[in-house]
Amino acid sequence: MKNIIYVLGIVSYLIVGCSSQQTMTTTEEKEAPVRIANDSLEYEIIILDPGFTSYLATAKPQNYYSQSTLETKNEVYVREWNYRARNPMQYNSNIYENEIDYQPHIDYGMEVNYKLYQYFQFAQRKYKMRLSSFRVE
Fold first, then answer.
1. What one-character DSSP code corresponds to residue 136?
2. What is the sign, positive or negative, of the torsion defined by CA atoms of 60, 64, 68, 69?
């Protein structure tokens, strides 16, 4: 009698444990690419990195920074980014796919410098990397 109860307990446990599992399907929203451009200079960067649009919406406002501060920081970030892009055996080539053509003597304007700077902040957080000794905001 004990064996029958024991066997029934195991069978009922297996039936409950093996019941069909619900599968959850998630629909991931497509994020529009962020375009960084200065049409008068025919300069454009398109960022396809998921999450950057929402990061940009919560970042410090553009008027928080001076253009000269952003230019100085971007120059440092771009130099390190390009070094890593040219060395795919040392650094993840999925992150550093392309070099950035950023010339310090060209005035790209506030919007381009701001969005480029914010992308570097976003990428450093997302990929847990440091492109300089500057504090990541």
1. P
2. negative
**CA angle centred on 31, ends 41 and 103, rounded to 5°:** 25
pLDDT tens-place string over residues 10-36: 544 445 455 445 544 444 556 777 777
Q: How far is CA 137 from CA 14, 75, 99, in A?
A: 52, 17, 23
- The predicted-structure confidence for 35-51, as pLDDT tens digits, reads as follows 777 777 677 778 888 99
Predicted model pTM: 0.73
Q: Are 113 and 104 in contact (CB under 8 A)?
A: no
Nearest residue to 77 (alpha-carbon basis) of 55, 105, 99, 49: 99
